Amino acid sequence: MSNETAIEVLRVRLEQAMKMRNANPKALARTAGLGETVVRDILQGKTGDVRLGTVEKLAKVLGLSIGDLLPDAFGRVSARQAVQSDHPPIISAHAGDGAIALRQVDISYAMGAGRNIEDYPDELPVLFDPGFLRSLTHASPEMLFVAQGDGDSMFPTMINGDQVIVDTSQRRLNMQDRIWALSVHGAAMIKRLRTVGPNRVRIMSDNTTIPPEEVDADDVFIAGRVVWIGRKV
């Protein structure tokens, strides 16, 4: 695609779609399987040629059709590619209807000590129905994030690759044996927690082959409580 007008329209539409989903260029490019600078270059008008395959990948991860990003007048989109998205409309997280985009982070890798949820890199946001979220927690969407389980330590409650919603408004260990997203000395994990004495916490796996571990409470950073577990079938 080399038409300057078409590329400018693509830039505007891509920018709008990303803004509504709270997506950043690097995370979008990574999720779409593109080079880290591809999305940034489009947004900054630094590219004069965008491949149709690139637009198709971006549209797919944004929950759009190619026709939503490419101008209709460009005339390179087939009827199959122009099928309308089955995702609900994206509106502000403060509104009462439509889909809500929750931040998604990769808790398998912490930048730095992992003592703050901001240390974990962003991935493309995930869309949820607001009524469904209200059934899980009274916290505002800004206090929630989505993460993915890694490993088999919580089997059978969780399997590798399951998604979880974490409520960061719940960071005080005031409920025994619940599931929490946490890190210990920068190592992120999803585990059950129990207080076992003054300033001591037991970290437990649902997988019975993995023994529990007791640590000082000061060594545990609780990002939030897991309020939902889901998986693809």
TrEMBL record:
Coiled coil: none annotated. It comes from the Bacteria. Residues 14-69 form the HTH cro/C1-type domain. Transmembrane segments: none annotated. Keywords: DNA-binding, Transcription, Transcription regulation. PROSITE patterns: HTH_CROC1. The keyword Nucleus does not apply. One of its GO terms (molecular function) is DNA binding. This is HTH cro/C1-type domain-containing protein. It comes from Sphingopyxis macrogoltabida (Sphingomonas macrogoltabidus). The lineage of its organism: Bacteria, Pseudomonadati, Pseudomonadota, Alphaproteobacteria, Sphingomonadales.
